Automatic annotation (TrEMBL):
Entry similarity comment: Belongs to the 6-phosphogluconate dehydrogenase family.
GO MF entries: oxidoreductase activity
Gene that this polypeptide is encoded by: gnd
Organism: Nocardioides ginsengisoli
First and last residue of the signal peptide: none
The protein, known as: Phosphogluconate dehydrogenase (NAD(+)-dependent, decarboxylating)
Length: 303
C-alpha cells in the first residue's frame, strides 16, 4: 500500500523502514529536512494516491491536534488519518468528529515496541470502524510481530489509545516491582552477585518478562547503576490511567503507587529509580543521566 508518515523520530523513522522492508511505499514528512522525503505536509499528501492514508507519529497534545487540523484541510472524502502517537484517548473523539465533517476517516493506534520495534515488530492497539481499520490493515500486518501483536480494541474512537494507556500503567507497576526488588537485594549483606540472581530469574520463573531481560542487561553492564541518577520521568499515560480509574471507581493501588514513586524520584536520588531509568532507556531509548545503550538517547538537558 501507499502511506504517508508524519514524524520520523525514534519510532516513526524505524516504522518507515519496517514498512518499506515489507514492500510498502512510504512518503515521510518531518520538520527536520534531513529526515524527510518531501519538504512539506502538502507535498506528502500530494504524493499519495487516493484514497489517501496518513499515519501521524508526533508528540501528543497540541502537536498532534495541529497536525490533524492541517491534514483536515489537505485531505478529502474517503481519505484516512491514523494517530499512532501517545495521544490521550479523550482527544480521539474530537479529532474523529472534526475529520468526519469532511468525510475523512480516523483510526487511533497505540503503538508499543520502542527502539526495538524495527527488529521485533510493534504491538498495535487500534480503535476505529472496521472499514477504516481494513484500509490500514496491510500496514498493521507489516508493523506487528510475525505472530500476534495486533488488536482492534473497539469501534469507538479512543479505544486503541485507552488500551495503550492501561498497558503503560501496568508497565509502570511491573517496573516498580522489579526496581524495589533490586534495591532490597543490593541493600542486604547476605546476598552476593545480584546480576546473576536476576539472570537466573529469566529462566523458568513466573516473573520472567522482557522488562526483566532489559533490567538484567542493564545491571550486568553497570552492577550498582552508579552511572545513573535516580530520576525517572513519567510520560503521561500513568497519570491518565490513574485518572480513568478514579473516574470509573476502579481500585488501582499498585499502579497509583508506582506513579507516585516516579514523583518521589524527583526529590532525591532514589536507588530504585535508577533501575526504572535503566529499564526505560533500554526499551524505549528514553533519556537518562548517562551514556545510553545502543539505540538509546542521552538526555541533552542532563536530567
Amino acid at each position: 500500500m501507499h502511506i504517508g508518515l508524519v514524524g520520523l523520530g525514534k519510532m516513526g523513522g524505524n516504522m518507515r523502514t519496517r514498512l518499506r522492508e515489507a514492500g510498502h511505499t512510504v512518503v515521510g514528512y518531518d520538520r527536520n529536512p534531513d529526515l524527510a522525503d518531501v519538504d512539506s505536509l502538502a507535498a506528502m499528501v500530494e504524493a499519495l494516491p487516493a484514497p489517501k492514508v496518513v499515519w501521524v507519529m508526533v508528540p501528543a497534545g497540541d502537536p498532534t491536534r495541529s497536525t490533524v487540523a492541517e491534514l483536515k484541510e489537505l485531505l478529502g472524502e474517503g481519505d484516512l488519518v491514523v494517530d499512532g502517537g501517545n495521544s490521550k484517548y479523550t482527544d480521539d473523539a474530537e479529532n474523529a468528529a472534526s475529520l468526519a465533517e469532511k468525510g475523512i476517516g480516523f483510526v487511533d493506534c497505540g503503538v508499543s515496541g520502542g527502539v526495538w520495534g524495527l527488529k521485533n515488530g510493534y504491538a498495535l492497539m487500534c480503535g476505529g470502524s472496521p472499514d477504516d481499520i481494513a484500509k490500514v490493515q496491510p500496514a498493521f500486518d507489516a508493523l506487528k510481530p510475525a505472530e500476534g501483536g495486533f488488536v482492534h480494541a473497539g469501534p469507538t474512537p479512543g479505544a486503541g489509545h485507552f488500551a495503550k494507556m492501561v498497558h503503560n500503567g501496568i508497565e509502570y507497576a511491573m517496573m516498580q516491582a522489579y526496581a524495589e526488588g533490586w534495591e532490597l537485594l543490593e541493600k542486604v549483606d547476605i546476598v552476593e552477585n545480584v546480576p546473576d540472581i536476576f539472570e537466573s530469574w529469566r529462566h523458568g520463573t513466573v516473573i520472567r518478562s522482557w522488562l526483566l531481560d532489559l533490567l538484567t542487561e542493564a545491571i550486568q553492564s553497570d552492577q550498582h547503576l552508579d552511572k545513573l541518577r535516580g530520576y525517572a520521568d513519567d510520560s503521561g499515560e500513568g497519570r491518565w490511567t490513574v485518572q480513568a480509574a478514579i473516574d470509573n471507581a476502579v481500585p488501582m493501588h499498585v499502579i497509583a503507587a508506582s506513579l507516585f514513586a516516579r514523583f518521589s524520584s524527583r526529590q532525591d536520588d532514589s536507588p530504585a529509580m535508577k533501575a526504572i531509568a535503566a529499564m526505560r532507556n533500554q526499551f524505549g531509548g528514553h533519556a537518562v543521566h548517562t551514556e545510553p545503550p545502543p539505540g538509546g538517547e542521552a538526555n541533552p538537558n542532563g536530567r
